[in-house]
Design brief:
Chain lengths: 112, 115
């Protein structure tokens, strides 16, 4: 069945380091892809999305490119801040439905 | 900025007891979702409403879980009786249209602990 696999955490980086969180998916069609972020004590927030192959989603310095050939949607940021500490979820959604399938989440901790 | 409201934020109960969670979506959002998030995992959809109608409850354990959205606005999720394995975060989300181009907005969740 359809699924999302993302790198296990926790990921710990120093402030201003480069971030990559890997995400790959298994799907029979052409889903939309998302990154959600969950800050401590809060609900999930949409960080960015891409709806078709080669699209790049971006927000708050984060970027991810929809790679159909490698079925990937890796999250990157050039220089992380302490305030980026959170849990990040990769997810997919089909155009024929509105049911999101989430990965298991990656906890990111940034040291000052 | 409009937000999805949920209450209570935390609930501790003993197994075999009944619990209920409430969600108030963003005003004007027709689609409402209930998710369960087990610690260390991503959220899983339990039930989806379009207005007052259920459109997907395939993952809802119907022997003990029930959900309603009587007037197509706020919603209640109930568990009776609660079991130890029900301990999780219960998230509510809403969206305007409910289609694949529509952003789902999540509430802060209700953390349930069953003793």
């Amino acid at each position: 069945g359809d699924s999302v696999t993302q790198m296990e955490g926790p990921v710990t980086l120093s402030e201003e380091a480069f971030l990559t969180i890997n995400c790959t998916y298994t799907a029979t069609g052409y889903p939309s892809l998302f990154w959600y972020v969950q800050y401590p004590g809060e609900g999930l927030q949409l960080l960015l999305k891409a709806t078709k192959a080669d699209d790049k989603g971006s927000n708050k310095g984060f970027e991810a490119t929809y790679r159909k050939e490698t079925t990937s949607f890796h999250l990157e940021k050039g220089s992380v801040q302490v305030s980026d500490s959170a849990v990040y979820f990769c997810a997919l959604l089909y155009s024929s439905a509105s049911k999101i399938i989430f990965g298991s989440g990656t906890r990111l901790s940034i040291r000052p | 900025e409009a937000e999805v409201a949920q209450s209570p934020r935390y609930k501790i109960t003993e197994k075999s007891q009944a619990v209920a969670f409430w969600c108030d979506p963003i005003s004007g959002h027709a689609t409402l979702y209930w998710y369960r998030q087990i610690l260390g995992q991503g959220p899983e959809l339990l039930v989806q409403f379009q207005d007052e109608s259920v459109v997907d409850d395939s993952q809802l354990p119907k022997d003990r879980f029930s959900a309603e959205r009587l007037k197509g606005v706020d919603s209640t999720l109930k568990i009776q009786p609660a079991e130890l394995g029900d301990s999780a975060m219960y998230l509510c989300a809403s969206s305007f249209l409910g289609d694949s181009t529509d952003t789902q907005y999540f509430g802060p969740g209700t953390r349930l602990t069953v003793l």
